[in-house]
């Protein structure tokens, strides 16, 4: 009986661990996606400002 209970607890712990790791990976990827989007916007703004500065001179 004890062995069955510990096996069930072990399986539940393993499932919880896998779900937690998957959630952490998704959160990390979302963070990198947001950072990449901000960098893309900054690069676009700098490129536009650079083109306007070249056309003025």
Distance between the termini: 85 Å
Number of strands: 0
Number of helices: 1
Unreliable residue stretches: none
Beta-strand content bin: under 5%
Mean pLDDT: 94
Described by strand count, sense and barrel closure, the largest sheet is: none
Radius of gyration: 25 Å
Determine the structural class based on helices, strands and strand pairing. mainly alpha
Describe the structure.
With 57 residues, the protein is mainly α. Helices cover 96% and strands 0% of the residues. It has one helix and no strands. It has one helix spanning 2-56. The radius of gyration is 25 Å and the shape is rod-shaped. The mean pLDDT is 94.
List the helices and strands and how they pair.
Elements: H1 2-56
In short:
The protein has one helix at 2-56. It is an all-alpha fold and 57 residues long.
Keywords:
about 55 residues, transmembrane, single chain, 1 helix, DUF2207 domain-containing protein, mainly alpha, membrane
């Amino acid at each position: 009986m004890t062995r069955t209970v510990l096996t069930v607890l072990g399986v539940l712990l393993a499932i919880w661990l896998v779900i937690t790791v998957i959630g952490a990976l998704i959160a990390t990827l979302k963070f990198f996606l947001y950072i990449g989007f901000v960098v893309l916007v900054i690069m676009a703004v700098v490129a536009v400002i650079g083109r306007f500065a070249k056309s003025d001179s």
